[in-house]
Design a protein that fits this description.
9 helices, two-stranded antiparallel sheet, single chain, 27% helix, Rossmann fold, six-stranded parallel sheet, binds flavin-adenine dinucleotide, alpha/beta
Length: 372
């Protein structure tokens, strides 16, 4: 594997958890293959989850009408963001691949990880209205979700109680990762580790171990390219694109489905959605998907769905939408300074804001089906 810098953003409270084991496997395999691996262990560093005025070390521009995005952009430009944010931005800046390792909480990431996303991916550093999606600042980086669920795989399908996992993944993978420009690798989903036997847990970890060996050469998921949309009409699909795909049975992506069928496994594995009908997800995908989803005990892991490095090449515009190399251009140099900013001094003009902790029960757990 090519030697790269990897950042693992990790959110679990316990070093004895399955998530910890998945994180440890990643560190071990990636280091053994020569990668540099940084881990941001969010609970261990007690990472602040709330986006507040305290994230800016010097006075804010408009304390009476505080706007987090604008103020943090200004603070980033002046190297006045709090040191915990700056540290993470420095790690992110040098990373070629970011792995988010977490237990699914409420169909999403745990609050502490959402806090990392809210606070580290600041306007100007991670995105701007002009530089987003395929043109995003991080277009030379890869990112992926690696997570555990309480639910079995069978509960997260188009015919099941939790609905299609592809739809659950769309906000995270499209709205956050792809929005910032990342090439998004297929997720690694560890289904219900707490409800299967220890040996099934070990099998899942082994699949992860194998996948990690060739992760860097995987093809990323495919999203509709920016030039399919027209700025003047509020980023609607261009009429010629609608016409081009008019006869297709499936929409372009989970979100951009044009009122048609949602393309199968669009957020779970590399599928070229913009290809000719013969290469569109077809009955074989449906059969495969159905077989997997209805399996009594989930056996498949997302390793099976990851695009192999030797997946067929595309041509023309299709190829342009699915980059195969990860050469780093020099995008506009972000202004994050990798030296610690000055010690924060409280701003007398800014009222101190409290942090409320809301506790709630877990959801979506399935009854144990297998005794350990
Ligand atoms: C607030 C909250 C919200 C939630 N929302 C959702 C939701 O929306 N949807 C959903 O599906 N679930 C949800 N859950 C459930 C949650 O996703 C699962 O509890 C979590 O994913 C389990 O992962 P874990 O790492 O904590 O597992 P653990 O309980 O730590 O581990 C499970 C098993 O892994 C095995 N294991 C650990 N280490 C190893 C090792 N080294 N080798 C082999 N086996 C090992 C052990 O046998 C252990 O029993 C929620 C939970 C909470 C608390």
């Amino acid at each position: 594997m090519e030697k790269k810098n990897v950042l693992i953003v990790y959110a679990h409270q316990s070093s004895g958890s399955f998530n910890a084991a998945a994180k440890d496997v990643a560190v071990e395999v990636l280091k053994a293959s020569g990668c540099t691996v940084d881990v941001s262990d969010l609970y261990a560093i007690n990472f602040k989850a709330t986006a507040t005025v305290e994230d800016i070390t010097v006075g804010v521009k408009d304390p009476d009408c505080f706007c987090y995005a604008e103020e943090t952009k200004l603070a980033w430009e002046r190297n006045e963001l709090s040191s915990d944010i700056t540290k993470e931005q420095c790690k992110l800046k040098k990373a070629d691949l970011v792995i988010f390792q977490f237990p699914m909480y409420w169909f999403s990431v745990p609050a502490i990880m959402k806090g990392w996303i809210d606070r580290v991916l600041t306007l100007g550093f991670a995105f701007s209205p002009e530089k987003c999606y395929g043109e995003g600042f991080f277009k030379d980086k890869m990112a992926m979700l690696s997570f555990t669920t309480g639910s079995h795989q069978s509960m997260f399908s188009a015919n099941a109680i939790n609905g299609d996992m592809n739809i659950t993944l769309w906000p995270l993978q499209n709205g956050i990762l792809h929005y910032c420009g990342f090439k998004v690798l297929a997720p690694e989903i560890f289904w219900a580790p707490a409800h299967v036997s220890r040996s099934e847990c070990s099998t899942m970890l082994n699949h992860w171990r194998i996948r990690l060996g060739s992760l860097m050469s995987e093809k990323p998921l495919v999203f509709p390219p920016l030039d399919y949309f027209e700025k003047e009409t509020g980023f609607q699909l261009k009429p010629e694109i609608i016409e081009k795909f008019a006869t297709k049975e499936y929409g372009l992506a989970v979100g951009v489905h044009q009122g048609k069928k949602v393309p199968l496994n669009n957020q779970m594995r590399w599928i070229n959605c913009f290809c000719e009908p013969t290469r569109h997800p077809g009955p074989e995908d449906a059969a495969r998907s159905e077989k997997t989803m209805t399996a009594k005990k989930p056996q498949a892991t997302s390793y099976d769905r990851a695009a192999p490095p030797d997946a067929p090449e595309l041509s023309g515009q299709e190829a342009a939408t699915v980059p195969h190399t990860h050469t780093r251009e020099s995008p506009k140099e972000p202004r994050t300074q990798c030296t610690p900013p000055p010690t924060p001094t409280p701003n007398p003009k800014v009222p101190c804001m409290g942090v409320a902790v809301v506790c709630g029960p877990g959801v979506g757990t399935a009854p144990k089906t297998t005794k350990r």
